[in-house]
Design brief:
Activator of Hsp90 ATPase AHSA1-like N-terminal domain-containing protein; Bactericidal permeability-increasing protein, domain 1; alpha+beta; six-stranded antiparallel beta sheet; protein-folding chaperone binding; Alpha-D-Glucose-1,6-Bisphosphate, Chain A, domain 4
């Protein structure tokens, strides 16, 4: 084991008051499966879905298969869960009892709650059944999503308590009394831990072009983001296939050379690399699959390493005006926030 002042500082091990997992460096895992089964049972079994005088009730959890874990890596919590659930339900319509099922085959951390598939079926075919099937599809599914969202929130907020333990220098005069920390936790990646202003700066310029003979209004997006990591680390996160897969949580195809193709987010984003300057700059032709056929924007990402963080400047031209707001939000949610969450390159509020 290396001593202080010797070897690679990333591998220095410091004593902890609990004598385990020093500095929260090593990966620790807590089995959340039994807790999750109890929580899902409590949230779903007997759950009543009612609206406008129509009421359906979950009568039984026919299937509850899967697993869940909470993990701590370098003081950062990561959750994995995957569940296959089948619910039996019943309701009444026109004095007839109707029964059916709701199948939830893909409740996992790879999908947002609103992306989780819920399939509704009925056990008979008649007007009453069809009416309640429509109710379950339009109303029941959303109420069930609310219960699933509660499970995910409590898994992350309640079950994980105590998974991150205090370091010895966080004790205040006694090995039994940890210092209270403020609400902001900075996940470091080798830089000084100064708090950064992570507010996105954006601007838009209006213009237009013709697509397929029709005029298409387009805009330019400019945004600046700050990440607490080195420029080469952020460049890797944007270009290494394993790291891109980690933050996009989906299928990735990538040919990292000029003219090479890329496909992200299961085919929703695609394009080509037009210019690559390692650790400094990426230029891509870039399109969202729902844009007009054949229409591409140009994305330029420039990285500038500062004393204690890296600044990323994004310029994206030729965004269809109708898609501008959604594109801006998606960069924030699916790129910048996801990169920070996956790799700890920034500041988070607890």
């Amino acid at each position: 084991m290396a001593k202080w002042g010797e070897g690679d500082p990333r591998w220095i091990v410091e004593e902890r008051p609990d004598a385990t997992n020093v500095n929260n460096w090593h990966w620790t895992e807590k089995n959340a499966t039994p807790w999750s089964k109890d929580k899902l049972q409590a949230l779903l079994d007997g759950f009543v879905m009612a609206d406008s005088g129509v009421e359906c009730t979950v009568t039984k959890i026919e299937k509850l298969e899967g697993e869940a874990t909470a993990n701590n890596r370098k003081g950062k919590l990561i959750f994995f869960y995957e569940w296959n659930i089948v619910l039996l339900w019943k309701g009444r319509c026109n004095d007839e009892e109707v029964t059916g099922k709701v199948s939830i085959p893909n409740l996992s951390e790879e999908n947002d709650v609103d992306e989780v598939e819920l399939t509704v079926s009925v056990d008979s075919s008649n007007p009453a059944s069809e009416k309640l099937k429509v109710f379950m599809y339009n109303i029941g599914r959303e109420k069930l999503r609310t219960q699933l969202e509660t499970y995910i929130r409590e898994l992350k907020a309640d079950f994980a308590k105590g998974l991150i333990l205090p370091k010895k220098d966080e004790l205040n005069g006694s090995e039994l009394a940890p210092v209270k920390k403020d609400k902001e936790t900075v996940f470091a990646s080798g830089f000084n831990k100064k708090k950064l202003d992570l507010e996105t700066v954006t601007s838009a310029d209006d213009s237009s072009k013709k697509v397929g003979g029709c005029k298409l209004d387009v805009k330019t997006l400019k945004a600046t983001e700050k990440f607490q990591c080195r420029a080469n680390e952020l460049f890797d996160a944007l270009t290494r296939e394993d790291m891109v897969t980690a933050f996009t949580r989906g299928y990735v195809k990538q040919e990292l050379f000029k003219g090479g193709d890329f496909v992200y987010f299961g085919g929703n984003i695609s394009g080509k690399f037009e210019d690559i300057v390692p650790n400094k700059k990426l230029v891509q032709t870039w399109r969202y699959k729902q844009w007009p056929s054949g229409h591409y924007s140009t994305v330029t990402i420039e990285l500038e390493q500062k004393e204690d963080h890296t600044e990323l400047n994004l310029t994206q031209t030729m965004i269809p005006s109708a898609e501008y707001d959604m594109t801006r939000q998606n960069w924030q949610r699916y790129y910048w926030d996801s990169i920070r969450s996956a790799f700890g390159f920034g500041s988070f509020l607890c």
